[in-house]
Structure formats: C-alpha cells, structure tokens
Specification:
The protein is mainly α. The protein has one domain. It contains 14 helices and two strands. The protein has a two-stranded antiparallel sheet with strand order 1-2. Helix 1 runs antiparallel to helix 6, helix 6 packs antiparallel against helix 9 and helix 11 packs parallel to helix 13. The longest helix has 27 residues. The protein starts with a helix and ends with a helix. The model has no long low-confidence stretch (mean pLDDT 90).
Length: 310
C-alpha cells in the first residue's frame, strides 16, 4: 500500500483525484490519532478538532507574524496540542462513557467560541497564509504539480501509523485495551488508568495537530469553521467508525470512502448541498452498524471468511 501511494501522484494526473488523495491522507492521519484513544482506548471524544485547530492556527500564526518555518510551526503546534490535551484530559477523564463524550463537545465549543472572537487569530475571517517560493523547506508547491503535497501527506500518514503501531505493541497499548474492556478490573490489578489515558491522549493530540498544520499549509487558509468546528470533530470520528474503530486499517479505508463522498457531493451540488455529505455519512454509519459494527474492515474480513468457508 505504501508503494502504491508513493507512485500514485506520478500515475494519476487528474486534479480531482490528486486532491482527493491528499485530503484522504490528511483525514486518515487525524482519524488514526483519534482511533488510538477512541477505538483502542474506548474514550469516544468529539473534541479532536481542538487539536486539529491548534496545529493549523499555530502553524499559520507563526508563519504570518514570526516568519517561522512551517515545519517548526507544525512541531510547535503538536507541543501546544499535547499541553491542551493534558489540560482538557485531567477534568474530563473523571467522567465515563456518554458523559465523557458530552464533556469533550463542551470543550470543543468553548475553544471554537474563543477563537471565533479572537482578533489576533483573525476572528471569524481566519488567517490567510502568505505565498512563499515553492520548496520543501517552505512546504509550498505548485498547484499544477502537487506531488510534493502528496508525498508530505503520505509521510505524515506513515508517521501516525508507525507511532500508533509502536504504542499499541508495547505495554501502554495493552493497558489501554484493558481499560477499554473493563476499567474497574484494570484499576484493580494495578493499572494506572488516568496515566495511560493521558498518555494516549497526548500522542493522539500531537498527531492530530500535525495533520492540522499540514492542512493549513495545503489550503493556505485557516478559518474556525474549517478546522475547529464540531463538524470537523464528527468527520474525524466518522472516518474511524466507518472504516472500523479499533482496527489499524479502519481509518485509512474510512478516509478514502468519506472523502470521496464529500468531494462528489460538493461537485454535484456546487456547494449548495454542503450538508448532504453529513446525511450520507450518517446513512453509511447506520448501515455499517446494522451489518457489521466493526466497520468496512470488519465487513471485508467477514466476507473473506465466508468465501473461504464456501
């Protein structure tokens, strides 16, 4: 799959499909980060647009006002997202199940309103990033040849996948799964529940912020409704859930499906049906929930086993 995605931009030149691939990889990176906490940890958060927005705004702000390299801006955004995750995590991890999810929505709304009324961050208008000479150092490439954007997005996707795989393969990953299965039992055998929740949230926040920082450089525009809204959080969750929450391949599969649906509806309705993609998202999620709760990955796995049986 890595080889296929590497040669993809050299074989596919259609602007629609090149843009779709880049956006799908950005969505997959954010969803992989969410899946670490929500899928493998059982902590269903609807506030991950906070970290996505922190990464986007930090990268954009430092580029505009400090002329700082976007690479350093993305790193700074990841560090700020970790701090934000710890500040948010300490109070909300006192809650469980749907109370936890409601608390993350409240946190997201607070962050959204604060940024929406912040003049240094452009308020509702947002930030328009300056054009720089096309180069890897400036993380800006020609719109006629977006191969650079594609390869950087692929690199971030690979980084998120590797970090998640290493985390889950070690002791923290085993403890996180134990917390998801039964928090009281995990605590009774000595697992420091809050510590490992915060550890998973910190890594999840950092990876989501990196995706947000890259998105800002790709769009060259940062606006609250685009990077910090509740719909952005829902989209991140839906990518993982549709593909298969709690699986390594789920966010990747879900990102391609949902990004394609979103882009097709925008083209078909010329922006007039901007809410139709959410209706289709909901229909797909309900369909998967009825047929296979493990998402598209689980459905493919079940069909494969049935074919072998026959």
């Amino acid at each position: 799959m890595a080889l296929l995605l590497t040669v993809y931009p050299f074989l596919i030149k259609d602007p629609f499909w090149t843009n779709l691939a880049i956006l799908a990889m950005v969505g997959a990176t954010a969803a992989i980060a969410w899946n670490l906490l929500g899928g493998f940890g059982g902590q269903i958060s609807f506030g991950h647009s906070i970290f996505f927005g922190v990464g986007a705004y930090t990268t954009g702000y430092l580029l505009i006002h400090r002329d700082l390299s976007p690479w350093l801006g993305m790193v700074a955004g990841a560090l700020l997202a970790v701090i934000a995750g710890l500040v948010i995590g300490f109070p909300v991890f006192r809650l469980r199940r749907h109370y936890f999810s409601i608390a993350t929505i409240a946190m997201q709304q607070i962050a959204f309103v604060l940024v929406l009324n912040s003049k240094p961050l452009g308020a509702a208008t947002g930030l328009e990033l300056p054009l720089k000479p096309a180069s890897l150092a400036n993380l800006q490439f020609s719109v006629r040849d977006p191969v650079g954007y594609h390869l950087v997005a692929l690199g971030l996707l690979a980084l998120a996948s590797l970090c998640t795989w290493l985390f889950l393969g070690g002791r923290p990953g085993a403890y996180l799964r134990a917390i998801r299965d039964d928090e009281e039992v995990a605590r009774s055998v000595g697992v420091q529940v809050r510590r490992y929740k915060l550890l998973a949230l910190s890594l999840s926040a950092a990876l989501t912020a990196l995706a947000g920082g890259f998105f800002a450089m790709y769009a060259l525009f940062v606006q609250p409704t685009a990077v910090l809204s509740l719909s952005r959080s829902i989209e991140i969750v839906l990518i993982a859930v549709l593909g298969g929450a709690g699986t390594l391949w789920g966010p990747f599969v879900g990102a391609w499906v949902l990004t394609y649906v979103e882009q097709e509806t925008r083209v078909a309705f010329s922006g007039g049906g901007s809410g139709l993609d959410l209706v289709i998202y909901g229909g797909l999620v309900m369909l998967i929930a009825v047929l296979e709760p493990s998402g598209l990955v689980g459905l493919a796995r079940r069909l494969t086993m049935r074919r072998r049986h026959w």
